From TrEMBL:
PANTHER family: D,D-DIPEPTIDE TRANSPORT ATP-BINDING PROTEIN DDPF-RELATED, TRANSPORT ATP-BINDING PROTEIN. The keyword Isomerase does not apply. One of its GO terms (biological process) is peptide transport. GO terms for molecular function: ATP binding; ATP hydrolysis activity. NCBIfam families: oligo_HPY. Residues 1-51 are annotated as: Disordered. InterPro entries: AAA+_ATPase, ABC_transp_ATP-bind, ABC_transporter-like_ATP-bd, ABC_transporter-like_CS, Oligopep_ABC_C, P-loop_NTPase. This is Peptide ABC transporter ATP-binding protein. It comes from the Bacteria. CDD domains: ABC_NikE_OppD_transporters.
Length: 376
């Protein structure tokens, strides 16, 4: 069941694509002029629908990765994220959906500064993460955590559950004694549905679902305000997926967490999110309330994602798979990045001009980056 939430007001830069550097190395495309002062007035200074400052506010994030070539070759870069802006309110889940290679995981890591942006900034509770020193950032880390996709690779096989979950408690000095640390680990394990007597077990003794619960417990142990869930159920069986999704919803309601929930499955994102952002080849193409995005699907890519998802609601009708493959992130298409695969693309328009992420209905909070959106 889709969650209801307030609608964010319109804003001109909430996900608009930024100009793509031709051949600049990452360090050279991050001048002071491209940092906070370069964000135009009225962009994302204060756009929470609840009348308060968003907990997380990303402004025109871009990330370039250099590609190794021969000594005489022209420099090349992978454009993983291209001028993306978004915000997450307190207690809100923003779902981020897209195909593999769309830049979802990179954006999630940028949101908590696990990796450095090439251009742009992230405000966390009003503090610019990109300006913090290593020491100040470490202190801020307690308030923002991540649950990784692979429950088999994200846990140290040489550590017990007590050590895995308690590591953050020790690093951030949240417990005054060993007994208090043990009590905190027991409490958070119980909160995610694991027995305290499992504390001395190693990851290889657990099932995939139990491992992911440990990963969630590790994130919760330091009492964060914001958690990036990077495809937390994609490596699990369907029955276990439902358990983990329900657990995350319960924990969010109980602890008032803010979540960035990343997935390639639009239906899972629809179920857990207040708002949904659709990403394609490094850019946001649609953003809005979860029910509006999944029901109206104004962008052709959003519609294609939905139609390619297996569903019993279609009464056995075959899925309509999106033709072609995503474009190259090294040499992205000009204009709208989706136009090579779009049945509505028009030459001279879609292959030349980048569509802004704008509301079709003013005040709806439902934005789409398309020159010819799907309107029924």
């Amino acid at each position: 069941m889709t969650r209801d939430s307030g609608l964010p007001p319109p804003g001109p830069s909430d996900g608009a694509g930024a100009a793509r550097p031709e051949s600049m190395p990452p360090e050279s495309v991050r001048p002071e002029s491209a940092r906070p002062e370069s964000v135009p007035p009225g962009s994302l200074r204060f756009d929470s629908a609840r009348g308060e400052r968003p907990l997380v506010q990303a402004e025109r994030l871009s990330k370039l990765y250099p590609v190794q070539r021969g000594p005489f070759a022209k420099p090349a870069f992978v454009q993983a994220v291209d001028g993306v802006s978004f915000h997450v309110d307190r207690g809100e889940t923003l779902g981020l959906v897209g195909e593999s290679g769309s830049g979802k995981s990179t954006l999630g890591r940028l949101a908590i500064r696990l990796i450095e942006p090439t251009v742009g900034r992230v405000l966390f509770d009003g503090v610019d993460l990109t300006t913090l020193s290593a020491r100040a950032l470490r202190a801020m880390r307690r308030r923002m955590q991540i649950v990784f996709q692979d429950p088999y690779g994200s846990l140290n096989p040489r550590m017990t559950l007590r050590e895995i979950v308690g590591e953050g408690i020790v690093i951030h000095r949240l417990a005054r004694s060993r007994d208090e640390e043990t009590a905190m680990v027991e409490g958070v394990l119980q909160k995610v549905g694991l027995r305290p007597d499992m504390m001395e077990r190693f990851p290889h003794e657990l099932s995939g679902g139990q491992r992911q619960r440990v990963a969630i417990a590790r994130a919760l142990a330091v009492r964060p305000d914001f958690i990036v869930c990077d495809e937390p159920v994609s490596a699990l069986d369907l029955s276990v997926q439902a358990q983990i999704v329900n657990l995350l919803e319960e924990l969010q309601d109980e602890l008032s967490l803010s979540l960035l929930f990343i997935s390639h499955d639009l239906r899972v994102v629809e179920h857990v999110s207040h708002r949904v952002a659709v990403m394609y080849l490094g850019r946001l193409v649609e953003l809005g309330p979860a029910q509006a995005v999944t029901e109206r699907r104004h962008h052709p890519y959003t519609r294609a994602l939905f139609e390619a998802t297996p569903s019993i609601e279609r009464g056995g009708k075959a899925r309509r798979l999106l033709p072609g493959a995503p474009g190259s992130a090294i040499n992205p298409p000009e204009g709208c990045v989706f136009h090579p695969r779009c049945r509505k693309a028009e030459e001279g328009k879609c292959d030349v001009e980048i569509p802004p992420l704008e509301e079709l209905v003013p005040g709806s909070g439902h934005r789409v980056a398309c020159w010819y959106p799907e309107v029924e």
